[in-house]
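Thread: quick sanity check before group meeting

JM: Hey all, I'm pulling together slides for Thursday and realized we never actually wrote out the predicted structure for the chain we discussed last week. Dropping the sequence here so it's in one place. If anyone has concerns about the input, flag it before I start.
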Amino acid sequence: MKKGIEKIKAAKDGGYSYMERLYQGKKLGIWISLAVSLITTLLFLLTKVIKIENTAQLSEVLGLDLQEGGFSTSYSTFNMLSFVHKSGLGAQGLFAMILFAITIITIVLNISYLIKAQKFSSRKSNIKIYEAGQYAMVFNILLSLLVILFGIYSNKILGLVNIFSHSVLLYLIIVISIAGFVVIKRMEAPERKLYKELGFFKELRKNWVLFMLLLPTILFFAINNYLPMVGIYFAFEKFNFRDGLWSSPFVMFDNFEYIWKADLLKLMKNTVLYNLVFIILGHIFKIFIAILISQLTCKWFKRLNQTLIFMPHFVSYVILNVIVYNLLTYETGAVNTFLTTFGADRIDFYNTPGYWPFIIVFFDLWKGVGYGSVVYLAAILGIDKTFYEAAEVDGANVFQQIRYITLPLLKPTFIILVLFSLGNIMRGQFDLFYQIVGNNGLLFNATDIFDTYVYRLTMTNPLNNGLGTAAGLFQSLFGFVVILLTNYIVKRKNEDYALF
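JM (edit): ok, ran it. Output follows.
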């Protein structure tokens, strides 16, 4: 009787109850979805999914000898960019880059699911594992559809029929990925119900008012931050106004190669070292000034000092250039005038690179420390006064209170601000360096940073937008990697201090 009931239930469930059965510690559905993930990964890695059916006709349209150029008749999503590069068919460039990026994401998601599924346990929640599997299946389907669309798009822009086609294996990937997604979704549903965790769409339906309130913020960032990121494509093409952004010749990494040959290591060293000094010394002095101001008891004197240390922040870099020049110029500079008054020799600052790291660091601190101390001052004022009162009762003096109360409680603020600063570690303060140093080639070895180099590069090549975009993209990626690594280290030490 019991077996009969189980069979009827299995029939009603469409056989899905069998997916719940455990085999070697994992559900049958998990094994099936893992097989799908492994098969699709191997197919994308090993299969040439894009084919060129008529090379003779394509050669005639492009005006290229495909045989002499070393062109192949089939490509994977990984090396399709090489065809676009060699053929100069810029209209395919962005689409081929999207295919490449989606391929990388798809492979990573599938491998991630293969790894996470090894932690499956029938005694705890596996929702995160199911989510990883769903993402992998969705991207398998998305990548397959994009490859099919790529062939249609390529034929259309060339005005030809059936030149570019796709492998029939893509349909197999779509079918088994849909099946894998459905299996995972059905296994996930009971666990979400058991642990009372809503999916995205149920959460959206339940709290749609809150999502509507988020919509203006999402639109703002989409329009002002994410939409302009399309301009990254400049970095991979040789832009000209005749063909425009989407059809200019695709040069892949040529712009990055040009920057690499321009003594990139020196630029990176200067930029990173200057920023490290700015960050370390800057935060130390900001904390120091914030503590000093917080200890002042006379209100008018406290306000006066706050005003005075804020003022350099509002001095423009052009005015700062005038101040530095009048201080350091050889003939009439204030410093040399002071030295000669006491019988010392003049110093030729503008022809001696060794002085400038100290000069630049000094004026950066002079201009930014006062304003930057506001955050630390606000954090100090937010500390509960009862801590200090208890410390006074215990006999702690001012210095002990600072050491054992103020500094430890400033630690979270310090870590978060440093993490924010590290994101721009490859972005130098262009205004500071350019206004103080200018185009003085004698000082470039000690003062040239990425931003000043890119400025000179784009000024000498005003129509080559790709060089400037490539440099900016490199800076952003470098900062992104630094943030991820630093945040990971902080998270390992103390999760509460991490940004994400």
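AS: nice. Residues 208-252 form one domain. Confidence is low (pLDDT under 50) at residues 1-15.
JM: adding both to the slides.
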